[in-house]
Amino acid sequence: MTDAAPLGVWSAPGRVNLIGEHTDYNDGFVLPFAIDARTAVAVAARTDGVLRVRSSFDESGASVAIAELDALFETPAPASVPEWTTYPLGVAWALLHAAGETANPQGLDLAIASSVPVGAGLSSSAAIECAVAVALNELWGTGLGAKDLARVGRTAENEAVGAPTGIMDQTASMLGEADAAVFLDCRTLETEVVPLGLEAADLEVLVIDTLVTHAHSTGGYRERRASCEQGAAAMDVAMLRDLTPVDLERAASVMDEVTLRRVRHVVTENARVLETVRVLRESGPRAIGELLLASHASMRDDFEISVPELDTAVEAAMSGGAIGARMTGGGFGGAAIALVPRDRLDAVTDAVTAAFSASDFRTPRIFTVQPSAGAHRDS
What we know:
Layout: E1 8-19, E2 29-45, E3 50-55, E4 62-65, H1 69-72, H2 86-99, E5 108-114, H3 124-139, H4 146-161, H5 168-175, E6 180-185, E7 191-195, H6 198-201, E8 203-209, H7 220-234, H8 248-251, H9 257-283, H10 289-301, H11 308-320, E9 324-328, E10 335-341, H12 345-358, E11 365-369, E12 376-377
Parallel strand pairs: 3-5
Antiparallel strand pairs: 1-2, 1-12, 2-5, 2-6, 3-4, 6-7, 8-10, 8-11, 9-10
């Protein structure tokens, strides 16, 4: 991009959601962790008030004057710039609004590279947002804390990109720690680091990327969110977070069967997250397998966001010796995760590969991830 030396390099991780799917935008509970696949942004100074973004994963880029960011994002996902650039540019726009007069925005070149797989449900988008957010926060002197920057990332994704996601992904990317998950109350935004103990338990998290791509900003995701809102209205509560499993019998009498199933998933998933946190603290990670399987069954049957490839991944992983498995991410494709004893990694990998071949599915991409540190400056 330029002959200038970078002012610095900042990076942020993708995330795996251990449990708690589609609960975040219902003010519920989630338990994600940051992973060791990261997105990095190198930054060089400009003197013309322009933000220029390029990446190693897309030949297209964009150059936009800082003064024109408001006009660019008058409507979500503007057509005048490549779609991927709305993530970093949207962060710049959201950061300026969040910081107000404390910001001192200067023109910059942003060069972005990533090892987070796109479309696998590992939140490559939040990794871009959080890497850019920590870089601009430092360079523009906005002085925002980690939770504020998570909100900036969510604002960018919701209002600039136009994807109606919650704040889980950005929180995990900002606050992650090694061998730990981030327990997030999506209503209060209170967080707690929960040790996972995978190392001591001799366990690995295996990601099975089905290579079935999905897009959050379209189709089924919006429909599921609308069903959740309808269900809350039918039960006369602000959000589905306000319901417990005890309320499901009454729910069956005030809503249609499809909406009931959507509501049942969210209500029982919130309960599973709380139970997983309790079990991790009391018994360790080898005791959470049944909770992971119950979560997948709920997403498959009640929320109906799984696909045959994800179901096959879960079933084959269990047959190969996994302790538990579930799809992770928004659904309609993406990845499954399996909690696997280290001495069973090869067996589980072979079982999944064979099952996909027998079903004539594309060969999945299978790899391990480590719970890792959140966004920070690298150099």
